[in-house]
Amino acid sequence: MPKNKSHSGAGKRFRVTGSGKILRQKAGKRHNLEKKASNVTRRMTGTVEVAANDVSRVKKLLGR
């Protein structure tokens, strides 16, 4: 059985913790920041866990 190649873009977007959780960055903090309220931009910082429905798909992309 050949090995599966991991998705290079997914490897840059997701991070796997030591316990096996998959983390991602929150969306929307790249551009048009002047019109967004400061509490909105603060809310978009940091990392969150990937939704339970998407975990299997992301693991497949990461080659796990």
Kindly describe this structure.
By secondary structure, this protein is α+β, with helices and mostly antiparallel strands. Helices cover 31% and strands 16% of the residues. The chain is built from three helices and three strands, in the order H-E-E-H-E-H. A three-stranded antiparallel sheet has the order 1-2-3. The mean pLDDT is 95.
What's the topology here?
Layout: H1 8-13, E1 14-16, E2 22-25, H2 38-43, E3 47-49, H3 55-62
Antiparallel strand pairs: 1-2, 2-3
Features:
three-stranded antiparallel β-sheet; alpha+beta; elongated; 64 residues
Q: What is this entry, summarized?
A:
This protein is α+β, with helices and mostly antiparallel strands and 64 residues long. It is built from three helices and three strands; from the N terminus they run H-E-E-H-E-H.
Task: Note the run of SSEs as H and E.
Answer: HEEHEH
Net shape: elongated
Largest sheet: 3 strands, antiparallel
Continuous helix count: 3
Q: Runs with pLDDT <50, length 5+?
A: none
Determine the fraction of residues in helical runs and give it as a percent range. Answer: 25-40%
Strand order of the largest sheet: 1-2-3
Tell me the fraction of residues in β-strands, as a range. Answer: 15-25%
What is the terminal-to-terminal distance?
Answer: 15 Å
Radius of gyration: 15 Å
Mean pLDDT: 95
Number of strands: 3
Q: Which class of secondary structure composition applies to the elements? A: alpha+beta
